[in-house]
Amino acid sequence: MRISYSSLETFENCPKRYEFQVKEKITAPKTKEQAFGTSLHSVLKFLYKQSPIFPTLEELIDYFRLEWEQNASKVKWTDVKMKEIYFAEGRRILEDFYRKNIPQSPTIVALESRFEAPIEDKLKETSHVLTGIIDRIDKIKDGKFEIIDYKTSRRMPAQSTLKDNLQLSLYTLGFLRRWPEMAKLDDLDLSLYFLKHGEKLSTKRNQEDINQTQNRILKNITEIEKNYFPPIPSPLCNYCPYRSICPMWSHLYQEETPGEKEVKKMVNEYFGLKGQSDEIDEKLLTIKRQINSYLEKKGLERVFGDEGYIGRSTQTKEDYDMEKLRKILEKNHLWLEVLTLDKKKFETLLKNLPSPLLKEIEAAKTKTRTQKILKAVRKTLEKIKKDWEG
Q1: Which of 67, 228, 264, 350 shows its CA 20 to 30 Å from the CA of 254?
Q2: The pTM is what?
Q3: Is 333 left (phi over 0), alpha (psi -120 to 50) or beta?
Q4: What is the β-pairing status of strands 188-194 and 199-203?
Q5: What gap in Å lies between CA 291 and CA 281, rounded to an integer?
Q6: 277-336 pLDDT, tens per residue?
Q7: HSE, side-chain direction, 13 A CA sphere, residue 46
Q8: Sign of the CA dihedral with 253 first, then 256, 260, and 266 last
Q9: 202 bridge partner residues
């Protein structure tokens, strides 16, 4: 299989979108976020291609205006003012970036560099090719390099999330494949530059990280090959261009036929009844607490009403030191059997064990917890008295 980082990321976020976008190749309107990101990436590529004689800030903004008009024309704008707001935000970002980074001139190894990295599945004896485009690769100093990817997201994640960032891990594989002699993992910095915030977060990878990345990719490929793509709802749905055909959302976009109206009516009725049920459950819980408090105060175990009684029953739960229990059962060749048993079957097994072994298991108990729970029985006072008299 030949697969890109963006496709892998799409699959991890939502297999159904992967099916629409990658497998079925269904075209979708460009979102304003995509147009914005594409424009800024193009402008920054233009900026660094001019190194060491950089364009002025005014020239850069003029270039952004052209790029923005071209990319924004592919977006279906419901509010024209929003288009102007995005342009103003892009201008602010570029002005901030220019002040912070120009006229310093980094030693750029590559801009928007395409890569291919083979990955083998030794168990299945198959091979795959990972592809991607790295925004920028700088040579920091002799033998040391930095991979930089620009981000236009609204939020900047915590530093700790970079350790599991699939994109940076995959870019590392691509870099080492293309220039195997240029840098060791210890000499390679991996950075995400968050343009809206003007901040750069950096991390590194070691060989264990690379191995885990390869396993993660192979696991994804195995899942993709199963040809099962369930939808996974998340906040990302708000930016998905496939909502109108997604089984999680498409009902919102269907015409309101008589049948659809009936379904909507049933949904509304369900939530109306559910609200009443929740309110009743809350009231029942409050009453149970009050009754339990009364039983504790009076030293009683039951209270009676005209429709029945509510009493307390004792519930006992036994816990085991699992390591001790495992050693005992492994010694007697019973551990594998226990792993497949539920609680009731385990209790049945205990009843049939010889006394010496049962004593060992009893010794593995850590504690026995006893608690009292309320139980309500619907039985009229007349019926209770009749049962007692009869």
Answers
A1: 228
A2: 0.71
A3: left
A4: antiparallel
A5: 15
A6: 999 999 998 998 899 899 889 988 888 888 888 888 777 777 777 788 778 877 877 776
A7: 19
A8: positive
A9: 191
| Residue 321 near residue 366 (C-beta atoms within 8 A) | yes
Residue written as token pair 């795959």: 128
> What is the token pair recorded at 113?
């560099």
Residue burial 154-190, b: 16+ Cβ < 10 Å; e: rest = eeeeeeeebeebebbbbbbbbbbebeeebbeeeebbb
Sorted by sequence, the CB contacts under 8 Å of residue 341 that are 6+ apart come out as: 349
Single-letter code of the amino acid located at 98: Y
Q: Which of 18, 41, 16 is nearest to 5 (CA)?
A: 18
